[in-house]
Design brief:
Elements: E1 12-18, H1 23-34, E2 42-47, H2 54-63, E3 69-73, H3 80-90, E4 95-100, E5 104-105, H4 109-118, E6 124-135, E7 140-143, H5 156-161, E8 172-174, H6 175-181, H7 192-203, E9 205-218, H8 228-241, H9 243-247, H10 250-262, H11 271-285
Parallel strand pairs: 1-2, 1-4, 2-3, 6-9
Antiparallel strand pairs: 4-8, 5-9, 6-7, 6-8
Helix pairs in contact: 1-2, 8-10, 10-11
Length: 286
């Protein structure tokens, strides 16, 4: 989908969704947004905690200390994707960037991604980057999983074969992309991010910046990515939604089958089905 260059603006909205995280942790995420060398128009914090909880009042009070931080309370706990959609709905920026409440950005992240947009073709709607994985328990840093598969341009076919974006803390996205493809898939139990990137890549160009510009934190607290049963169901749903495209691409079929079998939960997939899927993946890998 081509975009009108004359309609470009320079405004960026940062969106943080938070659930069961102390105010100090959320403030750390906000600080990494405020430290950007490319100033944000606004920072929206969407609170997904249970109504009137201790965390709600503490996070709201903390947000009130900052002039351009907007606090929005989602009605009850509806999940991260509903919270992101609410943030999108209220965002005034032409570009949107999400940050999980336990992750952080490096100072030049938005500036580098905006530079990539300025140099890009009119069809580009999303700019991703490389990242760092930080194990908070050991304080050991490593490459984020997408780094070793970095592509300068990721088409829909490339995204079927591998998720080149990963975390929602990664990309900078034109708001018009969501107006065109819709919001995050609220009913999806996990890997909503991957499904969204697939949807965007079908209509818009996606390009990458090869620098490490965000930090994804692994810790002992609650994280959706740790739940194998939800991850497996998420991958199965993605396969069903894009079944025809996967079937036409052997490499993509191998990837999604590997994702499904790699997140196997004995309670949600039979041993026979698991063996069949794993064997297909092994055959594809020979």
């Amino acid at each position: 989908m081509a975009l009108d260059k004359e309609a470009k603006t320079e405004t960026v909205t940062g969106i943080i969704t938070t659930f069961r995280r102390e105010a100090a942790v959320v403030e750390h995420a906000i600080s990494s947004m405020l430290a950007q060398t490319y100033p944000l128009l606004e920072i929206i914090v969407v609170d997904d905690n249970v109504n009137e909880s201790r965390l709600c009042s503490q996070i709201q009070d903390m947000c009130g200390k900052y002039r351009n931080v907007i606090y929005i309370k989602q009605d009850g706990n509806k999940g991260a994707c509903a919270a992101r959609n609410l943030g999108i709905e209220h965002a005034r920026g032409e570009y949107l960037a999400f940050l999980d409440d336990d992750d952080r950005w490096l100072p030049e992240k938005i500036e580098k991604q905006r530079q990539a947009f300025r140099q890009a073709d009119d069809s580009v709607g999303l700019v991703y980057c490389c990242g760092t994985l930080l194990d908070e328990n050991t304080n050991v840093e490593s490459d984020y999983y997408t780094n070793s598969h970095f592509l300068k341009n990721a088409r829909f076919e490339d995204m079927l074969e591998f998720d080149h974006v990963g975390s929602t803390s990664n990309p900078l996205i034109r708001k018009c992309c969501f107006e065109a493809v819709g919001g995050f898939w609220v009913e999806q139990p996990a890997r909503q991010d991957y499904e969204m990137w697939l949807r965007i890549s079908k209509q818009f160009g996606m390009i990458g910046v090869s620098e490490k510009l965000f930090v994804h934190v692994i810790h002992s607290g609650e994280q959706i990515s740790k739940n194998k049963a939800r991850a497996q169901k998420g991958y199965i749903n993605i396969y069903k939604r894009y079944k025809e495209a996967y079937r036409k691409n052997p490499s993509a079929m191998y990837y999604i089958l590997n994702c499904i079998t790699g997140t196997r939960d004995s309670n949600s997939i039979s041993n026979i089905k698991y063996i069949i899927l794993r064997r297909l993946a092994e055959l594809r890998n020979k």
